[in-house]
Amino acid sequence: MGGARTALFNWLYARKHGGQFLLRVEDTDKARSTDESTRAIFEGLRWLGLHWDEDVVFQAANVSRHRADVERMLESGHAYRCFCSAFELDARRKQAEAAEGAFKYDRRCDQLDAAEVARRVAAGDPHVVRFRVPDGATAWTDLVHGTISFPNKDIEDFVVLRSDATPIYNMAVVSDDVAMRITLVMRGDDHISNTPKQIMLYRALGADLPEFAHLPMIHGADGKKLSKRHGATAVADWQHEGILPQTMVNFLALLGWSPGGEFEEVMSIDELVASFDADGLRKTAAVFDVKKLEWMNGQHLVRMPLADLAPLAGRTIAAAGLATEQELAARGDWYLRLLDLLRVRARTVDDIARQARPFLVQAVTYDEAAAAKAWKDPADARAIVAAAREALVAAPTWDAASLEETLKAVGEARGLATGKLFGPMRVALTGEANSPGMFDVLTLLGRDVAISRLTAAENELARRAEGGA
């Protein structure tokens, strides 16, 4: 989720300023970079609609260039070969800890003369390449945090090339950034400690520095770093929870960024691009609030063109086994009208499918909580349902205006308020306590289905009145 938010901010910045949004898969660490994790990145970005502008760069394909850049630094004196073994380094580290001191590489291999280094390299002695950290301090102006500075004395001569000639992360990303002409690096603030090292490497390679923006983490509602315990963490998984991609883009954009002043939280992608500015990036951690995400999704459902919502809801309805997509398409205008009525009460696409059930099945199942309230007295409820059925059978036309007049007469004749009349009817027609308006329910169901369900409810209420389970 955090990676998706970071990608979105980069994408918005690039689109706002006419730049390019580039995608690089940093796969030099084979243990962490799997086909599954790479596929999740692609699926998430495609679902969000964050299309990249050039071919994907796979970092592992550029190892020869990474090594060449290391050789350039060796030649320029910015790096040196270190033959200290892991065993030796571990022993020195333990000595430092025993003396209650912090271990820092002592540059002993930097004292070797060129002839000795050449001899050991020719002999095939295993070694790494270390960057020679200069004196002074390394600072930059961060787009989120302002000026950040690190004393170089606190940074040891770090490894840039392992003994197997593969690059360390910091070396690989800088080499790739230079080759890809990166001008802005926007990422999580867990990378702040990497930045001074990377700035040193840019300078050693004679490259221009990009701008940096380090974004705070995303936390769960409990204030802890977002993780699997908070629910779905792969962004594309939310499509299976009935969340729209435009909702997720809107929601993520407001996690750590604000357009400033008074603004409408529900924004289209075009509105986000137009409003996005680095000045609105926040320094504090954002909170991933699932309830707010669902509320925002409900707002986007209402704003979405019905023609776009229809196939999306259709797939969910079909997956629930309520109707095939072809059957829904064949009912064209009726289906669109149903969606328009249901979406105002929905938070997710799954909600729409659930609400659609009474309008798509042959017979309804009565929700017992709804029946216990609306059918508390089965005999009385049966009389109400029977009176409504008899009047509806005789209704001259099956449209909202005619049905309203018909049921108004029933209520007046029995001295019933609308709620007392419609409550038992609603459970009879839909099996539930909540639904669209009564006249919408009746017209959507049609005369035959509505009369049939009222008749079935009469029989069920008669059974309950007689003490049936």
Q: Could you characterize the architecture of this molecule?
A:
The chain has 20 helices and eleven strands. Among the domains are: 104 residues, HUPs (Rossmann fold), CATH 3.40.50; 72 residues, Orthogonal Bundle (Glutamyl-tRNA Synthetase, domain 2), CATH 1.10.1160.10; 52 residues; 98 residues, Arc Repressor Mutant, subunit A, CATH 1.10.10.350. The protein has a three-stranded antiparallel β-sheet. It has a two-stranded parallel ribbon with strand order 1-2. A two-stranded antiparallel ribbon has the order 5-6. The mean pLDDT is 93. The chain is mainly α and 469 residues long.
Short summary of the structure?
With 469 residues, this protein is mainly alpha-helical.
List key phrases describing it.
469 residues; mainly alpha; Rossmann fold; Glutamyl-tRNA Synthetase, domain 2; 3-stranded antiparallel sheet; two-stranded parallel sheet; 11 strands; elongated
Average pLDDT: 93
Task: Report the portion of residues in β strands.
Answer: 5-15%
Q: What structural category arises from helix and sheet content? A: mainly alpha
Compute the number of helices. Answer: 20
In the CATH scheme, the class of one domain would be: Alpha Beta
CATH architecture of one domain: 3-Layer(aba) Sandwich
Q: State the separation between the terminal residues, measured CA to CA.
A: 49 Å
Task: Catalogue the unreliable spans.
Answer: none
Name of the CATH homologous superfamily of one domain: HUPs
Would you give the CATH topology of one domain? Rossmann fold
Helix content: 40-55%
Structure summary, number of beta strands: 11
Cα shape? elongated
CA gyration radius, whole angstroms: 33 Å
Neighbour order of strands in the largest sheet: 3-4-7
State the major sheet: 3 strands, antiparallel
